[in-house]
Amino acid sequence: ALLTDHTRLTKKSYDFIVVGGGTAGSVLANRLTEQPEVNVLVVEAGRSNIDGPDLDDIQVPYFVADIPASFDWNYTTVPQRALQNRTLAYPRGHVLGGSSSTNFMFYTRGSSDEFDRLARISGDEGWSWKAMLPYILKSETLTPPADDHNTTGQVDPAVHGKTGPVLTSLPGNASVLDSRVLQTTSELSEFPFNLDMNSGNPLGVGWLQSTIGHGVRSSAATAFLAQETINRKNLDVLIGTRVTRLLQTERKDGKPVFLGVELAQCDSGTKVQIRAKKEVILSAGSIGTPHILMLSGIGGEKELTRLGITTVVDAPDVGKHMQDHPWVPLQWQVNTTNTLETINRNPDIFNAAMAVYNATKQGVISNNPGGNQIGWFRLPPNSSVLSEFGDTTAGPLSPHFELTFGNSFLSFTEPVPATGNFMSMCVALVAPTSRGSVQLATTSVFDAPLIDPAFMQTPSDLATLTEAVKAAHRFAAASAWKDFIVTPFVEAVNTTTDVDIHAYITNLVTTFRHPMGTARMSTSEFGSGVVNSNLLVNGASGLRIVDASIFPHIFGAHLQAPVYAIAERASDLIKKEHGVPLLS
Ligand SMILES: Cc1cc2nc3c(=O)[nH]c(=O)nc-3n(C[C@H](O)[C@H](O)[C@H](O)COP(=O)(O)OP(=O)(O)OC[C@H]3O[C@@H](n4cnc5c(N)ncnc54)[C@H](O)[C@@H]3O)c2cc1C
């Protein structure tokens, strides 16, 4: 059942309590309750994804860039030292489905190298690409694009799922950029075409796959917590409620056992305690998970003592080593009116597009406004950045940077100009070495923690993103764009020398919203982390973490697909450990 009040909970204790009904938490809720004898409580801080007058804002693909504050945690980072002390908005989904309900819907799995590195450094072959592919496929179904066009040559159906709950699709609305992007891939050998970036080899330019099905966003909530799942008698989903801390229920074999949670709906609200019989599973995301751990006495002793919290498990890696993808926008004014600005500035055109969408779930409103193609690239083998700093990626199939191609003025740091039509590239650093943190500001879960992605703090990050900006300029200099680009947008004009580019980066870098690593796995590379390779918290019993916080290295990918994959495998690990039969 979907509940808004703890007094309606159907049980006093549950086999499993899942903290956070987000991307990973929704998968666990669904998979664990496939067996009727297993009961599960999900506690989600945010709102429902199916109630409210404003649901279009998270369901309609075109609205993705403008998610209202009521669906978000509305975090802000601490001043970013390498970015002239700018603070950055730091969105996270505050709704069932978590960030998968509010993200840009890019569906990218990362490279086989990245999964294989995880297997190698964790000593668990189960995380390898080969072992994870069945889980990746299990979560996904590739669906036809909204306009039902023939997708031959745009995707490899053989590497996609056919029965999974998350729906993916190719762009369903042609863009004025499409032919030019493709022409550039044949014109410039450094930007080759890749039929399917989700095959394990993402390198090159390909058609964007989005978590859109039948013209509507497909989130962890629509996919894994649909009505028939919520209606299961063995599943309670309590929304609008935060887990304030984990409860130590006993000590066993010298370890604290955390088979309970404390809940509240507001800081001054009644605190309620609920017990788990088998496990508490933290899926509160890369910010929420370390926040809750530290408030429960699981963290670095020094930091906990600073706030007067008694250390129960000394785990210095909690909240540390956070990575995220920084990016800068580049825009060019173009000589067509056939860009999204025309729709956005003219209510008649916008309303006509909405009417088409409402009647058919087709047209521009059904499409990801982020663009129709994206690309992943390595620095050239003879790059001086590589010889100076070494390779920061997982291997030869893993990218250093990403370019996305959009037919509008894309930026989170600059206002959209009132006139003119634009194309944009988002230039992202996808194998960064800077590492930040999540730290406690107070002892209440209702106060935001201090979030520091520490963007651009290493020389190699600055050098690599600089090379990526130069690559974007080379892409735009291909003859395919000659009659199309009028001039670079004024801000981007002065990006010719390295010094110019450094200043541009410092002024404009922001987040791709991919924090991870704040409760990372123990590995041969980094030593003892927060969880072991089965995702159980080291030094504790009854407690597991399943979300983006467990990754020791950031993927060269937008993170939702890797999170779906680890949550699918974790569901099986949990079932096996507790003798719950796996569905064939
Ligand atoms: C705006 C935005 C755009 C993005 N774009 C893309 C994209 O295009 N493609 C892509 O692949 N990835 C994208 N990402 C990243 C991707 O969505 C996330 O990496 C992924 O969804 C994280 O999954 P998770 O399970 O770790 O956390 P989440 O999905 O964030 O889930 C955590 C859940 O825990 C809940 N929670 C937190 N604290 C508590 C508490 N104390 N008590 C109860 N509940 C709590 C939260 O409300 C949330 O529902 C984007 C993210 C954002 C925010």
UniProtKB/TrEMBL annotation:
<dbReference type="InterPro" id="IPR012132">
    <property type="entry name" value="GMC_OxRdtase"/>
</dbReference>
<dbReference type="Pfam" id="PF05199">
    <property type="entry name" value="GMC_oxred_C"/>
</dbReference>
<dbReference type="InterPro" id="IPR036188">
    <property type="entry name" value="FAD/NAD-bd_sf"/>
</dbReference>
<dbReference type="GO" id="GO:0016614">
    <property type="term" value="F:oxidoreductase activity, acting on CH-OH group of donors"/>
</dbReference>
<feature type="domain" description="Glucose-methanol-choline oxidoreductase N-terminal">
    <location>
        <begin position="285"/>
        <end position="299"/>
    </location>
</feature>
<feature type="active site" description="Proton donor">
    <location>
        <position position="514"/>
    </location>
</feature>
<feature type="binding site">
    <location>
        <position position="95"/>
    </location>
    <ligand>
        <name>FAD</name>
    </ligand>
</feature>
<protein>
    <submittedName>
        <fullName>Aryl-alcohol oxidase-like protein</fullName>
    </submittedName>
</protein>
<keyword id="KW-0732">Signal</keyword>
<comment type="similarity">
    <text>Belongs to the GMC oxidoreductase family.</text>
</comment>
<dbReference type="InterPro" id="IPR000172">
    <property type="entry name" value="GMC_OxRdtase_N"/>
</dbReference>
<keyword id="KW-0285">Flavoprotein</keyword>
<dbReference type="InterPro" id="IPR007867">
    <property type="entry name" value="GMC_OxRtase_C"/>
</dbReference>
<dbReference type="GO" id="GO:0050660">
    <property type="term" value="F:flavin adenine dinucleotide binding"/>
</dbReference>
<feature type="active site" description="Proton acceptor">
    <location>
        <position position="558"/>
    </location>
</feature>
<feature type="binding site">
    <location>
        <position position="243"/>
    </location>
    <ligand>
        <name>FAD</name>
    </ligand>
</feature>
<dbReference type="Pfam" id="PF00732">
    <property type="entry name" value="GMC_oxred_N"/>
</dbReference>
<keyword id="KW-0274">FAD</keyword>
